[in-house]
Automatic annotation (TrEMBL), chain B:
Transmembrane segments: none
Domain named 4Fe-4S ferredoxin-type: residues: 9-38, 45-75
Keyword field contains Amino-acid biosynthesis: no
Organism: Caldithrix abyssi
Gene3D superfamilies the record matches: 3.30.70.20
Keywords on record: Iron, Iron-sulfur, Metal-binding
InterPro entries given in the database record: 4Fe4S_Fe-S-bd, 4Fe4S_Fe_S_CS
Pfam families xref list: Fer4_7 (PF12838)
DNA-binding listed as a keyword: no
GO molecular-function term, one example from the UniProt record: metal ion binding
Name by which UniProt lists this protein: 4Fe-4S dicluster domain-containing protein
PROSITE patterns listed in its UniProt record: 4FE4S_FER_1, 4FE4S_FER_2
Length: 477, 85
C-alpha cells in the first residue's frame, strides 16, 4: 500500500452535522456493529476511485437509516425496502452517477424482496450492499427472514422452527440465479482474513459500476452484538461457527470479465418525435379567445359526480379547449378504484399565467353532477363563484346566496337527444355558453381529440350545441 | 515547523471515539492493543496502544467499526508539526 497512513476516509464527513445528538464525531451504531466496518470499506473505495462527488448513497430503513449522517456523497433515504427502486430511478436519471443501495436483511429480504429481485433482474447498473445480521436489529431483535434455524429472537423465543417460521432466505444464492447480475458474492466480517475479503468485494462491486458493467450485490454476514445479546468478540465467533454454515461464503456469480460495458446513451427525444411515436400528431390549431367577462376569468374548476358520468372526460375536455386557446391548463383527476360507481372528481385550472398548483381546494366554478357532490363541495365555492348542477338528478337546491347558480337538467336533455351518457357534454356546452369562455368552434375541435370513437362525435356535437344554447339563454343579464 | 519521518510504525487510538468493543484487541496480530483500565466520557474502557511492537499492518484499522477511532501510521510516514509518536 502506497499510503503511509490508514485514517478516516475522506468520503466520510469530518463532523456529522446532521446527527442531532450532541456528539458529532461518533456514529450512532452500537459497539462492534458491522455497519461501521462496511461503511469504512465503502468510504475507502469511494476515495480510491475518486467518485465520492458523483456518488449517490441510498440509505434504507433499519439501523443504517442514518447513513446520510456520515457519507459525504449525495444522499437519499428510501422508504422501507424500496432502496433498489429509488436507486433505479436515480441511476436512470443520472446515468453517470455511482448509485449505492445499502440495505439490511429486514429491509432487503422481507419488505423489499420484490424491489431487489426486479432491480437485479433488470440488471440495473447499481451496487447493492446487503448487510445480513440474521435479525431485526433496530426494532429490538425480532426474527428476520435470514434468522437461522434454532436462533432465539424476541419473536422466536424457543428458536426459529422451520415448521412454523420457514427457512432462512438465502439472498446471494437467489440473486445469482438471475441472468442479469454480473457479480454476486457473500462475505463475512468475523476475522482479519475475511474482513480483507469483504473489503475487496466492496471495492469490486463499486468498481463494476464505475466501469458500467451492471448489477453487483455483496451480501455481508455482519454482527449485531446488541440484537444477539453477545459481546462483540463473541458475536464474531458466532458468525464463524453458526452463520457461515447456513450462509456459505464465496463468489456466487462473476461474469464481469465476459460482459460488455454499458454504453450510456443520452436519449432526449424532442416533443415532436414523441408525438409521432405515440401517433398523437394532430394539426396544430389555435383559436382566437372569446371575450370572457372579468368575473369568469382564470377559473378554478371542480367537477364532481359518480364514476361513469364522464366527470373526468368533462374536465379533460375543458382543459383541452383551454389549450386550443393557448391558455395554461391543468387537469387533476381523483377517483376510487372502481371503473363505474363510486365517486369521482377532477380539478381543472385554465389560466392566463402559469399554474402553481393543480389542486383546486376552493373552486370558482363547481360542477356537481350528483347530490352528494353538491352537498360536499358547495361550502367550498368561492364567494361570487358559480355552481352548475344537474337539476334532473339532484332534488335539492344549493343554499348559498353569494354565488351564481345554473341549474341544468343535463341528464334529461341528454336522454332526449338519445344517449344518457352525453350528459357531460351538455354540461360542457352549458359552461361555455354561460360564461362565454369558449365558442362552439373551439368545442367542436376539442371533441375531435377528446372523443376516441369517431362514430360518437356527431352525437356529442349535438350535445355540446344544445348545452351551449341552454347556457347562453340562461346568462345573467 | 519541524519535519518528522516515522522510524517505526505507530497506532493511535482516540480514547473519546472508541466504544470499547474490543475487536481491534482481538484482531491485533502482535497483541499490542489492550483495554485501558480507565473509562472515557462515554463510559467505555477504550483500547490503547501499549507503546511498542506495532508492525503497521493495519489489521486493527479494518477491524474497528468506528471511522475515526484508530489511525495507523506506517514506517516512513512523513509529517510536519507535532510529533505523533
Amino acid at each position: 500500500m502506497a499510503e503511509k497512513v490508514l485514517k478516516k476516509p475522506r468520503s466520510f464527513y469530518d463532523i456529522y452535522e446532521r446527527n442531532p445528538s450532541a456528539d458529532k464525531k461518533m456514529p450512532h451504531y452500537c459497539p462492534g456493529c458491522g455497519h461501521g466496518n462496511v461503511h469504512k470499506f465503502i468510504a475507502e473505495a469511494l476515495d480510491d476511485f475518486d467518485v465520492a462527488d458523483r456518488t449517490i448513497f441510498i440509505s434504507p430503513v433499519g439501523c443504517s437509516v442514518f447513513a446520510y449522517y456520515y457519507f459525504d456523497t449525495g444522499n437519499i433515504q428510501a422508504a422501507h425496502g424500496r432502496a433498489p427502486a429509488v436507486a433505479t430511478g436515480i441511476k436512470r436519471a443520472h446515468p453517470h452517477s455511482i448509485v449505492i443501495s445499502y440495505q439490511g436483511d429486514g429491509d432487503l429480504a422481507a419488505i423489499g424482496t420484490a424491489e431487489i429481485l426486479h432491480a437485479a433482474n433488470r440488471g440495473e447498473n447499481i451496487t447493492v450492499f446487503f448487510i445480513n445480521n440474521a435479525i431485526y436489529g433496530m426494532t429490538g431483535g425480532q426474527m428476520a427472514p435470514t434468522t437461522i434455524v434454532g436462533q432465539k429472537t424476541t419473536t422466536t423465543p424457543y428458536g426459529r422452527r422451520p415448521q412454523n417460521e420457514g427457512y432462512p432466505v438465502k439472498i446471494a444464492e437467489l440473486i445469482s440465479q438471475l441472468e442479469a447480475p454480473v457479480y454476486v458474492e457473500r462475505v463475512a466480517l468475523f476475522d482479519n482474513k475475511h474482513r480483507a475479503k469483504a473489503r475487496m468485494a466492496v471495492r469490486k462491486a463499486i468498481k463494476n459500476q464505475v466501469d458500467n458493467l451492471g448489477f453487483s450485490l455483496v451480501e455481508v454476514l455482519s454482527p449485531c452484538p446488541s440484537g444477539w445479546k453477545m459481546d462483540p468478540v463473541d458475536a464474531m465467533h458466532w458468525i464463524e461457527e453458526e452463520m457461515v454454515k447456513v450462509f456459505p461464503l464465496g463468489v456466487y456469480k462473476d461474469i464481469t470479465k465476459e460482459v460488455e460495458p454499458y454504453h450510456i446513451e443520452e436519449f432526449k427525444p424532442e416533443a415532436e418525435e414523441i408525438k409521432e411515436l405515440l401517433d398523437l400528431k394532430t394539426e396544430s390549431k389555435s383559436f382566437a379567445r372569446s371575450t370572457v367577462p372579468e368575473k369568469y376569468k382564470n377559473p378554478e374548476i371542480k367537477i364532481a359526480g359518480f364514476g361513469g358520468q364522464g366527470v373526468l372526460l368533462l374536465g379533460a375536455a375543458l382543459a383541452q379547449a383551454g389549450m386550443l386557446q393557448d391558455y395554461h391548463v391543468s387537469w387533476l383527476p381523483s377517483y376510487g378504484p372502481e371503473m363505474r360507481g363510486g365517486t369521482a372528481n377532477c380539478h381543472v385550472n385554465i389560466r392566463e399565467i402559469e399554474i402553481g398548483s393543480p389542486v383546486v381546494a376552493n373552486p370558482s366554478i363547481l360542477i356537481a353532477l350528483n347530490r352528494p357532490s353538491l352537498e360536499k363541495f358547495e361550502p367550498d365555492v368561492q364567494s361570487g363563484g358559480l355552481i352548475i348542477y344537474d337539476s334532473s338528478l339532484i332534488d335539492i337546491e344549493p343554499s348559498r346566496k353569494d354565488v351564481e347558480i345554473l341549474a341544468i337538467p343535463s341528464t334529461k336533455m341528454a336522454d332526449e337527444l338519445g344517449n344518457t351518457r352525453i350528459a357531460n357534454m351538455v354540461v360542457l356546452g352549458a359552461i361555455a355558453g354561460y360564461t362565454n369562455f369558449f365558442d362552439l368552434k373551439t368545442l367542436f375541435e376539442t371533441l375531435n381529440t377528446a372523443i376516441k370513437r369517431k362514430n360518437l362525435i356527431e352525437i356529442n356535437r349535438k350535445a355540446v350545441e344544445t348545452g351551449y344554447q341552454f347556457g347562453k339563454e340562461h346568462r345573467v343579464k | 515547523m519541524e519535519k518528522h519521518v516515522l522510524d517505526k510504525p505507530f497506532v493511535k487510538v482516540e480514547p473519546e471515539l472508541c466504544k470499547g468493543c474490543g475487536l481491534c484487541i482481538e484482531a491485533c496480530p502482535p497483541h499490542v492493543l489492550e483495554f485501558h483500565s480507565s473509562f472515557n466520557t462515554k463510559g467505555y474502557h477504550y483500547a490503547y496502544y501499549v507503546g511498542d511492537g506495532c508492525t503497521g499492518c493495519g489489521v486493527c484499522f479494518y477491524a474497528c467499526p468506528e471511522p475515526e477511532a484508530i489511525t495507523v501510521y506506517k514506517k516512513g510516514y512523513e509529517y510536519v508539526g507535532e510529533e505523533v509518536a
